[in-house]
Amino acid sequence: MLNMEEKYEPLKELGSGNFGVARLVRDKKTKQLFAVKYIERGTKIDEKVQREIINHRSLRHPNIVLFREVMLTPTHLAIVMEYAAGGELFERMCTAGRFSEDEARYFFQQLISGVSYCHSMEICHRDLKLENTLLDGNATPRLKICDFGYSKSGILHSKPHSTVGTPAYIAPEVLSRKEYDGKIADVWSCGVTLYVMLVGAYPFEDPEDPRDFRKTIARIVSVQYSIPDYVHISSSCRLLLSQIFVANPSKVVFSQLV
């Protein structure tokens, strides 16, 4: 069995985070490019990493980054995945400022297609955001959901109850510190993603004081958001956002969102 160095040729660093470093590599045999997430062996290989591997490897969908394999180096655990050459959707949106409703719809439909599939496999992502959606390198880019570090399986794991995710995207029920439905919380995060694509700002941040986390939390809990006058979107899109941003959701069905 080949080891990491024998099988893959390292090309460049793609980025780094709390987990470690991500690198672009080339399969020496097929010449295919892959992204590899290197996590230092030892205490960093925790339950979060185990869940990421178990949940991500079970998913096969055109709007989810494809999991290829896990390999070990003398110092690191290496997660080999599909390489999305188009980078983060977040970067594309920052360059544009905000998207037209048509462009936002194009990406949103792909996002909920991937998330709906995860939910059909009994997996909730729990950290959906623009930074965790990548694009392939095609002229008409395909969205790819990545980073399943906070994901939970309804079959293998306990029901979600911890407050995880990115503050601006967190649903009200996630803040309650009680058990919640991870799938419905994912839908809320999809709604935040849609809003950010359309408006170019986060829905629940105080425009006067966007860095005040307490104010953001208060606005999330009270579902206090508005669409600025300069943003022109259809009434059906406004209705969609109002159906997603609900303080006490019972069940949000993806078929309503497509």
TrEMBL record:
InterPro entries on file: Kinase-like_dom_sf, Prot_kinase_dom, Protein_kinase_ATP_BS, Ser/Thr_kinase_AS
Coiled-coil boundaries: none
Gene Ontology MF terms in the entry: ATP binding; protein serine/threonine kinase activity
Segments forming domain Protein kinase: 8-258
SMART domains: S_TKc
Stated name of the protein: non-specific serine/threonine protein kinase
Catalytic reaction equation(s): L-seryl-[protein] + ATP = O-phospho-L-seryl-[protein] + ADP + H(+); L-threonyl-[protein] + ATP = O-phospho-L-threonyl-[protein] + ADP + H(+)
Family, as annotated: Belongs to the protein kinase superfamily.
Keyword ATP-binding among record annotations: yes
Keywords: ATP-binding, Kinase, Nucleotide-binding, Serine/threonine-protein kinase, Transferase
Annotated ATP binding sites: K37
Residues that span the membrane, as ranges: none
PROSITE patterns: PROTEIN_KINASE_ATP (PS00107), PROTEIN_KINASE_DOM (PS50011), PROTEIN_KINASE_ST (PS00108)
Top EC group: transferase
A Pfam cross-reference name: Pkinase
Organism in which the protein naturally occurs: Aquilegia coerulea (Rocky mountain columbine)
Its EC number(s): 2.7.11.1
